[in-house]
Design goal:
The protein is α+β, with helices and mostly antiparallel strands. It folds into two domains: 205 residues, Phosphoenolpyruvate Carboxykinase, domain 1; 276 residues, Phosphoenolpyruvate Carboxykinase, domain 3, CATH 3.90.228.20. It is built from 16 helices and 30 strands. The strands form seven sheets. Strands 11, 12, 13, 14, 15, 16, 22, 23 and 26 form a nine-stranded mixed sheet that branches. Strands 1, 4, 5, 6, 7, 8, 9 and 10 form an eight-stranded mixed sheet that branches. The protein has a five-stranded mixed sheet with strand order 2-3-18-21-17. A hairpin with a 5-residue loop joins strand 19 and strand 20. The termini are far apart.
């Protein structure tokens, strides 16, 4: 337990409202975790997978209405609508809390209320924060066990007077006495709420049991609330992977990279380089918290302790390190379940066994046109068991960031790689990255292009114009020579339907170029959009000419960029008065460079 009076009072207050049958304070032990998993297997919520094929691993199926983040039911409840900005859904905090208290009343009857203390980031780091989540979902408990550093040690750090981020979650399905539970209790989409209160640093969620809506340490805390903390305290909470890359000489650098969900972050974070002698190691695949060190550089930690990755197309061919990482101690959600209690998904590398159950619990018919695994199905696994986990992911100090990459899925216009001329130009690049819509989001049409600034549009906890200004301010106050270089990359360019770059492990060739640019090697040249590689600067030796067209992949088309600039102009106009003048100046410089 704890002697922290604020925490005890807070738990009691919510217990009085939720009216659970029991209260369980999670200690984070393996025994506790196993007991909860065993109970879920006994009740039919979970399936224990084949111990020989997937040791200590479990399978879950959600309700078909509860398979992804629900952006249209996610709210930033700041005091004013302007502080939330037009990219967020807004409801006044007092009105939202009144609504939520009504539906929270008695919401945990017949269930156990779990109290989950957790650390986002390595224990004891000056970059870490403590949170406590209240939930009535055992699925959330076992996932938070993997995704965060959860349990008694977090309470010990909190001590008697420590502050914590309060996180409230209920699936919203109370049980009457004797009533049988359903396998995946949740509310309909229109009754789900994922609410962040930036001024009071609170998270209140209701109605969903799925990942980002229910594991409140993830997007809600690590990005929406942490982005507000970063703005107030002068640091960055970002939707970025962190990787370490070591060259032939044994020199190592760390790179952070922002890509929208399901656009290759996990693949890049666990890259196996095809460039002989180079090595890539994983610090994290999704979130980076970056603060300035005493040396003036930006140092980053991954606040998470596990991977919560998209499963389909993960194989020994596409991402061997991810595939190896999920062969044991893994929780699978909404994939196929084979007759021998193994898992299957599209792109796994072999045919689906006869009699496999699809994610809707029906025998899979490969001729039906329907997928066996839901397109946003997930694996949850500890970072520590990744074959290329960087030891520094546990380092409280973090890692120094030499470069920041931005990218999305763009079939034209954006070249394979280019470098910002300066920090503000890099902020402009980050502010206008775009990507095709993926299945990770409900309520948007797949394939459409939308701007997703810094890959943070669904995750920024305040006005995005102010967020851009915060990035500009970070650069203003820093030693310019110690700031990371900023690059834009695009592995997804096509011409006449054909990929121009092979991607996957070959992306290490681009990372090697970026590494050398961080050492100020003279291998770049000026262009209207920024610095681009000189001829031959990217090593394509050994690549099949049928699979790569470096000239086309690096093409800068004036007409395409004319349309791009018009799109950027229109996008920037959406932000009104709270848009940084510095980015307007960078856009004007871009226009001028194309006139020369």
């Amino acid at each position: 337990m704890t002697k922290n009076k604020r925490l005890i009072d807070w738990v009691n207050q919510w217990a009085n409202l939720f009216e659970p049958d029991n209260i369980h304070w999670c200690d984070g032990t393996e025994q506790e975790n196993q007991r909860i998993l065993d109970d879920m297997v006994a009740s039919g919520v979970a399936v224990k997978l084949n111990e020989e094929k997937k040791p200590n691993s479990y399978y879950f199926q959600t309700d078909p209405s509860d398979v992804a983040r629900v952006e249209n039911r996610t709210f930033i409840c700041s005091k004013t609508k302007e502080d939330a900005g037009h990219t967020n859904n807004w409801v006044a905090p007092d009105i939202m809390k009144e609504t939520m208290r009504k539906i929270y009343k008695g919401a945990m009857k017949g269930r156990t209320m779990y109290v989950i203390p957790f650390s986002m980031g390595p224990y004891g780091s000056d970059k870490s924060y403590i949170g406590v989540e209240i939930t009535d979902s055992p699925y959330v408990v076992v996932h938070m066990k993997i995704m965060t550093r959860m349990g008694k040690r977090a309470l010990d750090i909190l001590g008697e007077n420590g502050e914590f981020i309060p996180c409230i979650h209920s699936i919203g399905v109370p049980l009457k006495e004797g009533e049988k539970d359903v396998k995946w209790p949740c509310r309909p989409i229109e009754e789900k709420y994922i609410c962040q209160f930036p001024e009071t640093k609170e998270i209140w969620a209701y109605g969903s049991g799925y990942g980002g809506n229910a594991l409140l340490g993830k997007k809600c805390f690590a990005l929406r609330i942490a982005s507000v903390l970063g703005k107030e305290e002068g640091w960055l909470a970002e939707h970025m992977l962190i990787l370490g890359i070591t060259n032939l000489k044994g020199e190592k650098k760390y790179i952070a990279a922002a890509f929208p969900s399901a656009c290759g972050k996990t693949n890049l974070a666990m890259l196996i380089p095809t460039t002989p002698g180079w090595k890539v190691e994983t610090v994290g695949d999704d979130i980076a918290w970056m603060k300035f060190g005493e040396d003036g550089r930006l140092w980053a930690i991954n606040p998470e302790n596990g991977f919560f990755g998209v499963v389909p197309q993960t194989s020994m061919d596409t991402n061997p390190n991810a595939f190896v990482s999920i062969q044991k101690n893994t929780l699978y959600t909404n994939v196929g379940l084979t007759p021998d209690k193994d898992v299957w998904w599209e792109g796994i590398g072999w045919d689906c066994p006869e009699g496999t159950l699809d994610w809707k619990n029906k025998v899979y018919d490969k001729n039906s046109g329907e997928p066996c695994a839901q397109s946003n199905s997930r694996f949850t696994a500890p970072i520590a068991q990744c074959p290329v986990a960087d030891k520094a992911f546990e380092d409280p100090i973090g890692v120094p960031i030499s470069a920041i990459l931005f990218g999305g899925r763009r079939q034209s216009t954006i070249p394979l790689v280019y470098e910002a001329n300066n920090w503000n130009h890099g902020v402009m690049i980050g502010s206008v990255i775009g990507s095709e819509i993926t299945s990770a989001v409900i309520g948007l049409k797949e394939g459409e292009l939308r701007h997703d600034p810094f890959a943070m549009k669904p995750f920024c906890g305040y006005n995005m114009g102010d967020y851009f200004q915060h990035w500009v301010n970070i650069g203003k106050d820093a030693d310019q020579d110690k700031l990371p270089k900023i690059f834009c990359v695009n592995w997804f360019r096509k011409e006449e339907g054909k990929w121009l770059w092979p991607g996957y492990g070959e992306n290490s060739r681009v990372l090697a170029y970026i590494f050398d640019r961080c050492n100020s090697e003279d291998i770049a040249q000026d262009s209207p959009i920024g610095k681009i590689p000189k001829d031959g600067a990217i090593n394509i030796e050994g690549l099949d000419p049928k699979n790569v067209d470096i000239k086309a992949a690096m093409k800068i088309d004036k007409e395409e960029w004319g349309r791009e600039i018009q799109t950027i102009d229109s996008f920037y106009s959406e932000f009104g008065e709270r848009f940084p003048m510095e980015l307007k100046q960078e856009l004007n410089k871009l226009k001028d460079r194309f006139k020369q």
